[in-house]
Backbone:
């Protein structure tokens, strides 16, 4: 992990397990020891994080649902997601272009309280029309969220049967 300040020096720490007393950290026994090093940093924080942690791709997202059959029907038939399989004790899986979506029936106590999932679409108006026609209830129509230097960000929000908030997003380039 790297801590970056606004100077050209970066404070980094190395974590190790010590069995002997360590005078640098002032701790004894089998404990976590921090050793601070100062060095010039040439990579950005994002580059370091991706290299160090390996976190560069989402593999699966879990969404808590109260009724697995109703949720599978909504995600498959209304949203048109590619259904993979369903397994006990109430899990349903979908493929979103290499990212797996897991509907989680056993987590039904958290249904309606999940993180917002933003589904990227190339044509927001067309996706909005198609999903509305299949029964998705949108909170509002597509709207401009932000103007960036090279595109506009448009979104439309809707909810699944358990009231989990979902969104369509589109980056519209001139």
Residues:
């Amino acid at each position: 992990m790297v801590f970056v300040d606004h100077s050209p020096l970066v404070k980094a720490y190395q974590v190790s397990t010590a069995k002997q007393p360590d005078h640098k950290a002032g701790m004894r026994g089998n404990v976590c020891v921090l050793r601070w090093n100062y060095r010039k940093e040439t990579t950005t924080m994002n580059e370091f994080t991706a290299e160090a942690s390996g976190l560069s791709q989402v593999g699966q997202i879990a969404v808590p649902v109260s009724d697995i059959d109703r949720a599978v029907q909504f995600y498959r038939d209304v949203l048109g997601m590619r259904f993979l399989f369903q397994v006990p004790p109430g899990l349903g899986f979908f493929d979103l272009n290499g990212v797996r979506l897991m509907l989680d029936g056993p987590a039904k106590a958290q249904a309606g309280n999940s993180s917002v999932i933003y589904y990227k679409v190339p044509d927001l108006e067309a996706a909005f029309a198609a999903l509305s026609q299949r029964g998705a209830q949108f909170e509002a129509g597509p709207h401009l969220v932000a103007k960036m230097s090279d595109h506009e960000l448009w979104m439309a929000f809707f909810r699944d049967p358990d009231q989990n908030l979902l969104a369509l997003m589109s980056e519209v380039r001139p």
Remarks:
- Confidence is low (pLDDT under 50) at residues 1-43.
- DSSP finds three helices and eleven strands in the chain.
- The helical segments are 45-53, 68-78, 124-133.
- The first helix runs from residue 45 to 53.
